[in-house]
Write a structure and sequence with these properties.
By secondary structure, the protein is mainly alpha-helical. It has helices spanning 2-49, 52-58, 64-91, 98-112, 118-133, 135-161, 169-190, 192-198, 204-224, 226-253, 261-275, 286-297, 302-338. α4 (98-112) packs across α13 (302-338). The termini are far apart.
């Protein structure tokens, strides 16, 4: 009787385990597919409301010289980010050629073509470098790079809130609230007691604990190398100024020459934060919708706003393709060395 009960219990456990595995497999396929369908649905909705002929008409102003200039801006933007990353890695005792880091950064764009948000590329380029240099060190450097970028981006937005009277109060309040949220998040991560308390929350707890540990380590690095961190913050401000120049150049390239600069410093941070949400693969549809909403507030037509969004997406895809080529060439080089 006992043996029979034991067999039934074992069989029941195996059934439960199998069911959990099936549920996990379904979730791993279902949610990515759902996100992709959502992104495609938003794109279809956008193009059903903005005539394709109007969008094509905006691109008639795009010349080869503009294309080359826009690509150059992307190259410089990536270079500034890589320079930040290199400095922060050096504070961890990691010395890497900037050409290699540049390639890995482009590889991050390639990973972002597959993963649901900009976070995927960051994690994977950090992991790739950390295989030889130490995962903890590269994770801290990557965390600090993104943290300093978020700080400078929101700080610039708040500064320009007070530099314009034409922007709606709701958009100004949004930027200020985002900055306050950033400050509150910083306070939470700074407090070990608060982090320990939040770790008790199911599902969210492990993520908070990981980010809290990274923040504490990043804080230690910052206090030990304050000059390097100040240089990184300065580069972060430069990067986000160039990010606004990037949007401004995209606007001018398709004929929207009246784009207001001060207002762009307010809305671009909001657009970038919305685009980083892991809702659809590489914010497909989400990013376009954000550009249309906010740029139309600044005086762009829907077709012009969509044109800007499409150019920025095309540039991200170009960087991703270059990143994929870098990974392919690196793999071939390693294969030749082994052979």
């Amino acid at each position: 009787m006992t043996e029979h009960s034991s067999e039934l219990s074992q069989h029941s456990c195996e059934e439960v385990s199998s069911q959990k595995m099936i549920d996990r497999n379904l979730s791993s396929y279902f949610f990515p597919a759902l996100k992709s369908l959502l992104g495609l649905g938003i794109i279809v909705f956008i193009f059903s409301n903005i005539p394709l002929s109007q969008v094509i008409a905006t691109f008639q102003n795009l010349t080869l010289s503009w294309v080359l200039f826009l690509v150059l801006i992307s190259i410089v933007l990536v270079y500034v980010s890589v320079l930040k990353w290199q400095i922060l890695l050096s504070t961890q005792g990691i010395r890497e050629r900037i050409s290699h880091l540049y390639g890995l950064y482009l590889a991050g764009y390639f990973f972002n073509l597959v993963f649901p948000s900009f976070i995927g590329g960051d994690a994977l380029r950090s992991w790739h470098l950390g295989r030889n240099q130490g995962q903890r060190k590269t994770a801290v450097a990557t965390f600090l790079e993104r943290y300093s970028g978020l700080f400078s981006m929101l700080m610039l937005g708040v500064v320009f809130v007070f530099c314009t009277d034409t922007m709606r109060q709701s958009e100004k309040i949004t930027v200020v609230l985002l900055f306050l949220g950033f400050v509150i998040g910083t306070v939470v991560l700074y407090s070990k007691a608060l982090v320990r308390g939040l770790t008790l929350i199911p599902k969210v707890g492990s993520m908070v604990a990981k980010q809290g540990a990274l923040f504490q380590e990043a804080l230690r690095v910052s206090t030990s190398c304050p000059r390097d961190v100040l240089v990184v913050i300065g580069l972060s401000f430069l990067f986000h100024m160039l990010a606004v120049v990037n949007v401004l150049a995209c606007a001018h390239s398709i004929g929207w020459t009246q784009a207001p600069v001060a207002e762009l410093f307010i809305v671009v941070p909001v657009i970038l934060i919305i685009s980083a949400l892991p809702v659809t693969p590489q914010a497909l549809g989400i990013q376009e919708g954000a550009f249309i909403y906010y740029l139309c507030l600044l005086g762009a037509t829907p077709a012009e706003a969509l044109g800007v969004a499409l150019i920025i997406r095309a540039k991200a895809y170009l960087l991703g393709i270059l990143g994929g080529l870098y990974l392919l060439l690196s793999a071939r080089q390693i294969h030749k060395q082994v052979a």
